[in-house]
Amino acid sequence: KLQADYATRLAAHRDAIQLNPKLFARIEALYQRRAALGLGAQEQRLIERQYQQFLRAGAKLDEDGKARMKAINAEMAQLGARFNQNVLAEVNDSAVVVDSVEELKGLDEEQISAAAAAAKARGLDGKYLIALLNTTGQPVLAQLENRALRQRVYEASVARGSRGNAFDNTALVSRVVTLRAERARLLGFATHADFVLKDETAKTQQAVNGMLRQLAPSAVGAARREGAELQAVIDREQAARHQPSFKLAAWDWSFYSEKLRAEKYGFDESQLKPYLEMRNVLENGVFYAAGQLYGLKFKERRDLPVYHPDVLVYDVFNADGSQLAIFLADLYARPSKRGGAWMNAYVDQSGLMNQKPVVANHLNIPKPADGKPTLLTWDEVTTLFHEFGHALHGMFSNVKYPSMAGTKVPRDFVEYPSQVNEMWADWPSVLANYAKHYKTGEPMPRALLDKVLAAKQFNQGFASTEYLSAASLDQRWHSCRWTGSRRPTA
Ligand SMILES: [Zn+2]
Known about the structure:
alpha+beta; Neurolysin, domain 3; 3 domains; five-stranded mixed beta sheet; two-stranded antiparallel sheet; 17 helices; globular; binds zinc ion
């Protein structure tokens, strides 16, 4: 409720600043004289950014244009808040209820007890609840042997947001795209994509579409070859059982990929998990790599108040012992939490304000039942390293103005530090430092470790196609031109 209320008020507040003619006149005057003001590089950059941001907000529009801009921003703020609330409500509403434990074959003991506890929490004693993660892919699809249940989980996952219920987002998405197209037109751009890209490092739609066109055919080709291999596994398995074969479907992909992975590389994900205990991965993997690379040291703090008991807090020190930042790790999924994984700066670094950064990583790792260890999938390990790359970007910030701190860089640059940090996850000396059995402390056997590394390209056709198709779809939606009618044309 607060979000919906404040989203509109904050949008109006931003417009009151950025569409204020007197303020803009002052900024424009400074912008035009910037070369003669004897400014340092940071001040010069600040003026250029501020000027650009006012322009992009509509500072040069006439009175009618400004009024329309304010109305668009107010409506978009409302729609944005409703969209997020629908997504969250839908995640909780769309959990899959399972009647019998037999159907859960393939899940491990911890997952089954967590599913029973989740059902009980909703008053469904004796049943099982498979909570959906806020991503299209659902990790349990790799494990569930019951094909009909896999189909139910998959269909529940992809139907979210378009089920015609109270949380349906389809009309809302269409309206947002229309408003974005209209706003772009108002600001002199052909499409929303052009408006956004002007301020990114890619600059143009041609650059983005060219990159997508270059990558997509190879990715799709590789995914088709992977699909054929999976079909062969299905055919062979069904023949061995004297059962008719079936055509590989979307809900089969993860499940048979795991079988094929086991066949090709002699391991499956579940063999890895005991070596990937969460805190061990964080402290002896992620922090260790940052220590080796940048000399950082981490010390847990328990004296600071946190917004949830599961949040871990660390002081982060430079090699010389001076404090660099405070780092928060909020790693478990909760019903009230947004899906996915992200980094957040709660306090921006700023020389002007004499502030050191407070930076957090948020993940959605399923919380095990009480007393059970949190064992990560390889994907979650990679995500942890990835998000910590963003955290490093925030913590190493060394600027005067908070508006330029940390990750406040073009969106299409911001993934660079995180992608780089991901590569340390399987760096042999780093992996050897954290991949230890949670019970015995024994290191992950070298042979298993080598298999992990050898399997890195496995299923990459699918993984690349998955994100490239999402990127292409997004690009296509936002290439609509506003024609003055209610509907934009593609
Ligand atoms: Zn990222």
